[in-house]
């Protein structure tokens, strides 16, 4: 009777645990960083060690279009008196010597150069004018920092900034930040991907320039959870390049306690049809008599207590631990 009662309670616990971890997304609970040493090769590990996996050529600022409030530097080759700094007004226009008002809103700097050269030539001022237009401040566009950062949002900037400066402005990354950062611009479909590594020699390569209009997205790291009768229950960030097995996850949780029912462990895996529960025989895996399975993101390894009073107390404790599960890096 006692064993049947315990198993019923465990079944109820599984359902409650699934609801907590997937419907409530365990990170929405009281998430805190554990004391385990941070894993090398993560964004949170440091915004100082990274490599660009898909470097791009060219100046990103060339993709920016002229907007309201932008400060432009306009020069005419060989005519220093024409050179000046002008700000685009609310109508998207600027005023220049000789040719008067010119509408530049929404144009690239190259297009703006061509229009000014055309006006100077058609007005009979110069036969072959050579104009240069540079954007020195961007008055109408900010940089969006989204994803796994402490304070996501749009940050107003007038000029180019370094990536790490913008991450710092957003309060740094969260404990769930992954290795990858995506950078895109509203006027371009291209997405740059930065992948962080532990190689400090890559530091300067990673701290790229970002520009007004850019969107920075810090991706979420894959996390697996180990809860129940283990010494350090919680979520563990996984290095997706190496993955994590059941025994590795158990080791990160500092192993099972002496009251654990190893052969009644469960692996709960998220599928398109809903959570799937699989029996795990930890004793056999530890003895090398069963395969040490690879875990996937959001998998939950539950190690129950043995039967009796300890089982009831353990389930209650595990439920409380799940509600405030820490996220650890290794």
How would you describe this protein?
The two termini are 42 Å apart. The strands form six sheets. Strands 1-11-10-13-7-8 form a six-stranded mixed beta sheet. It has seven helices and 21 strands. Helices cover 22% and strands 31% of the residues. With 330 residues, the protein is of the alpha+beta class.
Structural features:
wza like fold; 3 domains; alpha+beta; 31% strand; 6-stranded mixed β-sheet; Outer membrane lipoprotein wza fold like; rod-shaped; 22% helix; 7 helices; 330 residues
End-to-end C-alpha gap: 42 Å
CATH topology (fold) name of the largest domain? Outer membrane lipoprotein wza fold like
Helix/strand structural class: alpha+beta
Shape: rod-shaped
Adjacency order of strands in the biggest sheet = 1-11-10-13-7-8
As an assembly, this protein is: single chain
User: How much helical structure, as a percent, in the residues?
Assistant: 10-25%
């Amino acid at each position: 009777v006692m064993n049947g009662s315990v198993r019923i309670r465990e079944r109820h616990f599984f359902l409650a645990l699934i609801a907590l971890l997937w419907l409530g997304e365990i990170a929405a609970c009281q998430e805190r960083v554990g004391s385990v040493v941070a894993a090398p090769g993560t964004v949170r590990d440091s915004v100082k060690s990274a490599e660009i996996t898909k470097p791009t050529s060219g100046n990103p600022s060339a993709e920016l279009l002229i907007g309201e409030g932008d400060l432009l530097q306009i020069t005419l080759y060989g005519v220093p008196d024409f050179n000046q700094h002008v700000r685009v007004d609310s109508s998207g226009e600027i005023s220049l010597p000789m040719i008067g008002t010119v509408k530049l809103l929404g144009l690239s700097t190259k297009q703006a150069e061509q229009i000014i050269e055309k006006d100077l030539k058609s007005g009979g001022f110069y036969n072959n004018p050579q104009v240069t237009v540079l954007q020195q401040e961007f008055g109408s566009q900010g940089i969006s920092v989204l994803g796994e950062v402490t304070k996501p949002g749009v940050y107003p900037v007038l000029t180019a900034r370094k990536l790490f400066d913008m991450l710092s402005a957003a309060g740094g990354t969260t404990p769930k930040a992954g290795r990858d950062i995506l950078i895109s611009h509203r006027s371009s479909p291209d997405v740059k991907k930065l992948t962080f590594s532990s190689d400090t020699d890559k530091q300067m390569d990673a701290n790229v320039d970002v520009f007004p209009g850019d969107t920075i997205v810090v991706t979420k790291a894959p996390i697996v959870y180990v809860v129940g009768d283990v010494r350090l229950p919680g979520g563990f960030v996984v290095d997706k390049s190496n993955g994590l097995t059941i025994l590795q996850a158990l080791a990160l949780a500092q192993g099972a306690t002496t009251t654990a029912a190893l052969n009644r462990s469960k692996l709960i895996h998220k599928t398109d049809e809903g959570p799937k529960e699989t029996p795990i025989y930890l004793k056999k895996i530890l003895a090398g008599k069963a395969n040490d399975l690879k875990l996937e993101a959001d998998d939950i390894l539950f190690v129950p207590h043995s039967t009796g009073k300890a089982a009831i107390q353990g389930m209650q404790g595990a439920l409380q631990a799940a509600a405030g599960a820490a996220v650890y890096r290794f």
